[in-house]
Fold this protein.
Amino acid sequence: MDCIFEYSDKTNSFINFNENQNSFLNYNNKINKIISEFPNLFFITKNNNFYRVDLKEEEGRAILEKENVISATSVFSSYNYLTENHVILKNNKVIDLPQLDEDDKFVNFVTTGDLSCCFLLTERGKVYFHGINVYGIFGCTTLQKDEKITSFVKHTELEEKITSKIVDIKCGYSFCVIRCENGDCYGSGYNYYVNMGITTKKELHEFTLFKEIEGKVKQYGCGYFSSVFLTFDGDIYVCGKQDNGQFGTEFPIKWNK
C-alpha cells in the first residue's frame, strides 16, 4: 500500500494518504506529493501540476494553481515553487538554479517557516542552500551566523560528513532536518523547544546526528517548533513544543520550555 505521510503542527493533524483510495484521481494523474501547511493543503501530481485544496468545500475541492511544478512550499497562503529552471518565491522573486551534472536533477525544495532561507535537494542526494543563515541553520562551519547567501551554494561539508545518500529534507520555523537512505536523521538551526530532540544545545550550527533514532527513520515531518518521526518498525517519535495538542497527548513539560 503506497502511502504519503505528512505532518504539520499548525494544522494539528497527521495525514496518512493512500493514493489508491482518494477523491483526487479524477484529475487524471496520481498524486506525487501531498503537503499540509496551515491553513492550506495542497498536492503535486506526477505530471507536475500543483493543486490547492479548498477546505471550505464539503468535498475538499482541488483547484489547479500552477503547472510544471516539481516541488513547492506554502506559508500562510503564500506559495514558493521549484520549476525546471528556477525557484519562484512568494514575492515573485526568481532565483536561478545552479548548474548540475547531466545525470542529476532537483527533486525537492523547502523553505523555513519564517521564509528567511530555502534548501534544494537533488536526485543524487546533493544539498544546496540560499538565504540568511539564521540560528546557523545552513549547518556550515565556514559561515557566520545570520550571514546572507545571495545565490544557491552547494553544501560540500555535508558531502564530506555524511556517507549515506540524503533522500529527504524538511524545515520547521528556523530549523532544518535531513534524512539519509540508511535511516539516519541530522538537524541544524533553531532548537530552543528541543524541536530536534537534542537537549544539550539551543542552536545547532552544524548538522547533528539524532542518535536516539539513528538508523530507524522511514519518514518524518517538521512543524513550526516540533518534529515527528516514523520508524521502519512503525513506532512514532515526537519532540518539540506542544501547546495545541500537536502530539495528541500530554508531553513532558521539559520539551515545552
